[in-house]
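Sequence, please.
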């Protein structure tokens, strides 16, 4: 057993089975052994690849999306541009490069990054030095004022809890120790779970055997942002893989070196995520005072922002090798079989703001 697995096993022996959220929190963010603490997990040599690492066009279009949002906000003289979980800083570096075309926005923005990983903070410092970013451990650290916030593949890393429907009540699926004391297994809590109150109303009467997921940290984040945007103005863009409307199903997954990994095996060594329930995020933000737009499929969103036009401009001056990379990157972002449909964009906005670029319909979860 790894050092982290031993610590988790000790904790289970002392206090009983853990919620999946507790297991996930430790596996990802344990101060010493957590997955994100000591490694750069992105890219071909890491465990997974994200849209900004697939094509520079992704970050460029999002940068221009931010400039459009700033314009719709009435071009405030000072605006906080924040990113949650910026990874290697690639998205923001591409965005800021594209924003050279909008110098007034560049002058107005102060860059703030919310990042838990010391390794990734160093990457971000290297590629974003020119914009003098400030780092924060959580959303609560951001200064007051009008805000434009972006987050790509951030929500999927927030811990989830799983509940299974019994004959008459919901029961939490927990992580226990196997009979040999050396491995982890799932175990159902025999007591009815009070967390069932957090399930989306549409799922509460699901058939026995159904599994529902809740993500309390995402509810809190969306409600905090919803209230803030309602009072201080601005907009937040979330892009992630997930589902809409609410649905039952086990979406917890682990990835290691680009392959599926057992979710309970070697905690801290594989990325652990679950799909985002966009309806719950939307409902929490709306309930706190924001207007919510989308979700729209990533493919349609990027097409509406001008992906084809930007790709054509890059292709016009590309070498044959670059051309192949640009085309395959765009396909990966747009193709419904790849990232085009499973990934979705959702915007939370101040109620007075006009529809953000790429969105037409409000979300009424
Ligand atoms: C899947 S990566 C996405 C990186 C980047 N947005 C991209 O698209 O390439 C998740 C990012 O969120 C950060 N992260 C995960 N959980 C976090 C938390 N609770 N607080 C702050 N950052 C977190 C990770 O360190 C990493 O930068």
């Amino acid at each position: 057993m790894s050092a982290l697995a031993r610590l988790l096993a000790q904790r289970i022996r002392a206090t009983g089975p853990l919620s999946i959220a507790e297991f996930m929190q430790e596996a990802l963010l344990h101060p010493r052994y957590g997955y994100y603490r000591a490694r750069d997990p992105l890219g071909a040599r890491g465990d997974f690849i994200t849209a900004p690492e697939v094509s520079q066009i992704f970050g460029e279009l999002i940068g221009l999306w931010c400039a459009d949002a700033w314009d719709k906000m009435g071009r405030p003289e000072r605006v906080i541009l924040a990113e949650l979980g910026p990874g290697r800083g690639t998205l923001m570096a591409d965005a800021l490069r594209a924003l050279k075309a909008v110098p007034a926005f560049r002058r107005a923005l102060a860059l703030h990054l919310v990042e838990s990983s010391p390794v990734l903070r160093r990457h971000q410092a290297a590629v974003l030095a020119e914009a003098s970013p400030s780092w924060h451990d959580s959303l609560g650290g951001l200064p007051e004022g009008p805000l434009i916030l972006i987050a790509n593949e951030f929500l999927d890393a927030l811990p989830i809890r799983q509940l299974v429907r019994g004959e008459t009540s919901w029961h939490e699926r927990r992580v226990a120790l196997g009979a040999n004391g050396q491995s982890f297994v799932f175990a159902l809590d025999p007591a009815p779970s009070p967390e069932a109150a957090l399930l989306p109303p549409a799922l509460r009467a699901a058939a026995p055997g159904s599994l529902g997921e809740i993500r309390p940290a995402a509810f809190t984040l969306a409600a905090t942002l919803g209230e803030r945007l309602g009072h201080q103005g601005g907009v937040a863009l979330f892009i992630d893989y997930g589902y809409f409307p609410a649905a039952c199903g086990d979406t917890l997954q682990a990835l290691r070196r680009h392959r599926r990994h057992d979710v309970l095996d070697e905690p801290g060594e594989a990325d652990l995520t679950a799909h985002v329930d966009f309806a719950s995020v939307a409902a929490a933000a709306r309930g706190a005072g924001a207007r919510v737009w989308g979700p729209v499929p990533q493919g349609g969103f990027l097409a509406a922002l001008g992906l084809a036009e930007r790709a054509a401009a890059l292709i016009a001056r590309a070498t044959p090798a670059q051309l192949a990379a640009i085309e395959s990157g765009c396909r990966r972002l747009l193709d419904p079989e790849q990232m085009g449909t499973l990934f979705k964009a959702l915007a939370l906005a101040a109620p007075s703001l006009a529809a953000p670029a790429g969105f037409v319909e409000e979300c009424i979860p």
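Residues 29, 36, 42, 50, 52-53, 85-87, 91, 114-117, 120, 152-154, 157 surround S-adenosylmethionine (CB under 6 Å).
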